[in-house]
Structure to design on (194 residues):
């Protein structure tokens, strides 16, 4: 899950510098060292983030040490349902959009549920959770197109005349003579100067 804004940066380190434990089990991707399973918010019983001075058992990475403990079922049935909603009706207009332009359509839903309870009273419990994410976005984009003259590259063409070559570099002009005469001056040493 690489959604924007889900990273954790501790003490100026990257997300890959953290060590994640999920119920005491290593929760780090072996290649990128990023978190593998991002637990559902409703499934977390407790969490602890250590930023420095942690014990040697957790000294794997220089960033934060993140321990997450998930809920377990109890003797009573508990459940939770939730939804986080964002859409264009609730959002402000982009600063760069023209006032007459409509707000671009945007819909984002993060939803889920958690359910826990007994299988056998005082002996066996269950807990299950689900987290869903849907996004339908469109972004406004401002771009500048070139003029018709510049699309043909005609201001950049080279024009050659006899005796003078004129080179244009997209609006600038430099002139030079095609005859290459060089004069060499010889300096003579004056007996008065040392």
């Amino acid at each position: 899950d690489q959604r924007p804004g889900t990273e954790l940066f501790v003490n100026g380190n990257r997300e890959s510098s953290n060590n994640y434990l999920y119920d005491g089990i290593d929760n780090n991707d072996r290649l990128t060292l990023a978190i593998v399973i991002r637990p559902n918010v409703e499934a977390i019983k407790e969490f602890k983030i250590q930023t420095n001075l942690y014990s040697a058992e957790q000294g794997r990475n220089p960033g934060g040490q993140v321990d997450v403990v998930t809920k377990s079922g109890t003797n009573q049935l508990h459940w939770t349902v939730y939804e986080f909603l964002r859409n264009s009706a609730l959002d402000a207009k982009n600063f760069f959009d023209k006032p007459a332009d409509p707000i671009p359509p945007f819909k984002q839903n993060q939803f889920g549920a958690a359910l826990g309870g007994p299988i056998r009273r005082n002996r066996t419990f269950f807990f299950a959770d689900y987290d869903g994410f849907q996004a339908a976005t469109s972004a406004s984009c401002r771009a500048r197109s070139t003029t018709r003259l510049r699309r043909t590259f005609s201001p950049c063409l080279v024009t050659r005349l006899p005796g003078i070559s004129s080179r244009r570099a997209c609006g600038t002009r430099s002139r030079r003579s095609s005859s290459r005469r060089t004069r060499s001056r010889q300096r003579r040493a004056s007996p008065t100067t040392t």
Notes: Residues 8-70 form one domain. The chain has one helix and ten strands. The mean pLDDT is 77.
